[in-house]
Structure formats: structure tokens, C-alpha cells
Amino acid sequence: MVLHSHLPWLAHAGTWPVGEEWLYQAWADSYLPLTELLLRRSAAGHRSQLTLGVTPVLAAMLDDPYCLDEFRTWVANWAVRADGAVVDGVGVASDEARRARAATVQLETDWSAGASPVLRRLADAGVVEILGGPATHPFLPLLDEPVARAALETGLQDATVRLGRRPSGIWAPECAYRPGLEELYRDAGVTHFLVDGPTVGGRTGHPYDVAGSGVVALARDLDVSYRVWSPTAGYPGGLDYRDFHTWDHPSGLKPARVTGHGVEPEHKAPYDPAAATAALACDVDDFVGAVAERLAAHQEATGAPGLVVVAYDTELFGHWWREGPQFLEAVLDRLPAAGVRLATLDEARRLPAESMPLPAGSWGAGKDWHIWTDQVHLTDQGRDVARRLTDLVGRRFATGRSARDPRYDQLAREALLTLSSDWAFLVSHGSSPDYASRRADEHAARFAELADVLEPELASGAVAGTASDPARTAALVGRLRHLDGPFGTLDARTLLDGQRDAGVDTSADTEVRG
Hints:
This protein is 50% helix and 6% strand.
């Protein structure tokens, strides 16, 4: 079981209806319930429950003091709305009020310093394996090698600071792969990553040593995964589950059940917890049976133990599918009872692997790259930003490995935020496309503004690290760092070829924030 937790950088970038609200809804409905579930299972002695991907950009927001303060305010408002709905007789209000109070307690206890202490506890106890990944979730196959390497190294370093350990497994953004990425992964110390089932021709029952590199790919089983996540027939669309799309507008709560596909909101039936519980029991039975059947078929066909990897966005469990956390906990209980061993990806990669090259692929529509390449403006803009970044950093540090320059670190930060795969995805799917386009353009413009200030000193032959107007440059960097401040360990010098071979020690000037 692999859960992929990710949102793009949303701090200081709008609130409602898009922006920070996305973060706070997912935090309240998915991240808090999931960690509470896992902490309970840890206390009960359970181990190796699942693999949890937390992208560096999301981890940065979940630790950021500004985001924590704003989320506390959001939860307080949620509690007020729920209490008001209780008075108004909204059917789900009592449960919402209970959940809001529980969230308040979690923010005062386990989550008082953000997500990292909670994730460390779970990882140290062996309850989960936590995956790392490239800093801002860029589509790696489209990046030039120096930028892809810098994005990955920045993400892994950030996770090391937050978790006290460097992840050996990663969630490759969008499960995207191109031949040769395994070499980049190997050089970064990555031992395993996830691909989608079609990338291995649907033969998902064992790991793959990619092109003999020693880096292992594990593939998502679509038949089992889609029982939950199919857009047309997945469990969350069951008629008795809480409806995600129907709102009680005075309170903002969701009081209806799905009722029927195509039923207008005003005709939706009230949510019935007992009916949802009964539906959940049937879906758990179906899921556990499908996994056991898949493994038995593999054993019969090959004579060897098999592997089933299912992978989902974490936000499905609780946010999109209110009953999702209950489903997850029931499945974690029932699978071992059905003779299925739960394992992390790090454990699963140690099964006998087939060595073979893999074709390009992703988990996007069509299992190719068109969702990202079709957005020509964003693709061209990202390429131009990345190449200008590489050029400027190379020229800035051409004379040697001098100390970090926070101006260029911020330049790299804006470039990486421009390269987030989310912007093209949101545009392609029609999910707030104007917001996504604006965000990509904003980061590109901030990058260009800073680059235009820094470039003249390189062209004039001025002493490296000086500027014609130091106060103006410092003010610009400070403003951009306030708006876009993740990844305190980000070091622009990582873009330079041969950094790892040069054995440069950057520990003395590492900056940590959030």
C-alpha cells in the first residue's frame, strides 16, 4: 500500500476558492486522520503498515510556521461552522464538530511543531517507510540533467533534515520514467521507485532491476488499484457514501450521500452513516478478496510468492472519500487475516527481481507524457527558465567553489517552483486552469526579475557576489524568500557538474527554515 501525499506550493498564493484552502482541507480531512490512525496502530505494535510518500514541497508547508498558524485559524473557523450547523439541524454537524475538536487537540499535541516530528515517530517505529522525491514535484523526464539532479538532491536533503534520515526510496513525480533516470537515481543513493503498471507491460507481480542498474522499479497493479480509484466504478462513488460535491452553503458542510449518479444536489438524500458502514464492509471484502486472488494466481503461475502494489493519492482518503480512512484501517486489519503479508516498498524490492530496461511512461492519462508536453507554453517557459538558471549559476561559480550565495539559492527556488508538474496537470484537466497558469507565470516572472538584477554583475566582470545596488537586491531577495521560502537546504551550486565527485563540504553553511 503506497500513499502519495502532495500539493504544490500554496502559501501566500491565494486562499479561496483556490490556493491555501486546498492545503487546509486536505490537512484536516486526510493528513490528520491518517497520522492519527498510524499512531494508534504503532501503539498497538503494528509494523510495516504502508509506504507513505510526502513530497518535499508538501512537507515544507506542513512544517511552515505561517501555514501552521493559518491552519489553526481555519480549524477554529471549521469548529464554529460545525457548531452553528448543529443548532441548524444539519445532519452531519455533530460528527463535523467532533472532528474539528479532535483536530484542535492534534494541533496542540502531536502536530504542535508541524508534520516532521509525527513522521519521524512513525518512521523510527517502523510503522511506515517514507518516500522522498524531487523538491517541487517536477516532471523529471523533461528536465535537463543538471536541473533534474539538483531538484532530486534538494528534495532528498530537505527530507534528511526533517526526518533525520535520507530516504532510499522516492516517489517519481507522476510515476514518470524515461530510460536513463535510473542512473540519476543510483548516483543520488536511491534504491527504488514506483512506476505504473503499463510501464512494465502489466506484469506487476515482481520487482524490476532497471537495465541492470541495481535500482529497483516496483509497478502499480491497476486491476486492484482501480477497484478504489476508477473514475467510473471505484468504491468512493458508491451511492451510500458521503457526497463530495454537494454543499450546505450556510455551513460549508457536506450533508448528502451520493444517492445516484446524475442526481442534482437538491435531490440528494441525507447522509446515512449506517448505510455507509454497510457499504464499506462490502467494499473491504471485495478489495481483500481481489488482493488474495491476485497473489494466489501469481503463485500458481510462477511457483513463487507474488507482489501486489496499490498506490493512491493520500488526499483520496478522507478528503475526496470521507469513509476512506475507515476503509484503509479495515484493509490493514483484514489483509493479514487473509494470509497476505503487508510490506513497505523497501521490503518488497528485496524479492527476486527481473533485470530489464523499461520504456518511457507515466501514470497520467494514456500512460504517456502528453498531459505535460501538450501545454506548450508551460513546457517552453520551464525549459527557458531552467536553462537560464544553469547558465547563471555556472557563470557565478565559474572561478571555484566559493560559499553559498543566498541570491542564487532564491533564483533556483523560483526556477524549481516554476517547474512543478502540477501547473500543466491542472491546466490539462481543467482544474482551476487560470490559477495554475498564473502561478507558473508568477514564478517565472519572479525568476526573471531576480535574474535580470544578478546578470549584469556577471557580464561586467564585477567581483563575484557583488551587485550594483546591494540594498535593492537584498530587498528583492527578501521579498521573494518571504513569498516562496521552502527548502532551507537548497544550494544552487548543486547544479554544477561534478559537485559530488569534488567532495565539497557544504554542511557548515547549510540554512534550515521551517
